Amino acid sequence: xxxxxxxxxxxxxxxxxxxxxxxxxxxxxxxxxxxxxxxxxxxxxxxxxxxxxxxxxxxxxxxxxxxxxxxxxxxxxxxxxxxxxxxxxxxxxxxxxxxxxxxxxxxxxxxxxxxxxxxxxxxxxxxxxxxxxxxxxxxxxxxxxxxxxxxxxxxxxxxxxxxxxxxxxxxxxxxxxxxxxxxxxxx
Length: 187
Fold this sequence. Notes:
By secondary structure, the protein is an alpha/beta fold. It contains 6 helices and 7 strands.
């Protein structure tokens, strides 16, 4: 049995460290902290890092399809590795939550998030686990420039703490904590 953790984001250096790459930043940190090695190209449109976290098999995934078509990468991996939806966790950014906020969910609509919308479409269900990290609404400018922009200097420490908290929640999940336990502890 393997846990698949999918971080959502956009591939390419121009998107590094942007708000929309929140999912990538979390899985990058996990790969580093748990010595899972470099992300390597998979046979599908994704890069993966896999290995053991405290005796449990884990695959970290970053789709290379761009955010709005994330499901095109996730579905073939779920099928190929026969991953039960209970063993899938998707990490996303959320405009409706303040920077520093974290929420864990076991299902739900996309909330307007195109990466989640794509995964729901490809999987044919909204019943998969999610870790949502707040990026807040823009105070000025467009939503697109906000999500594709970097965190402000005063926001970054709060965001970094949330990445650490998300990583702790994910490791608890890998160790067998239920989604309801995680929601009680981290939401």
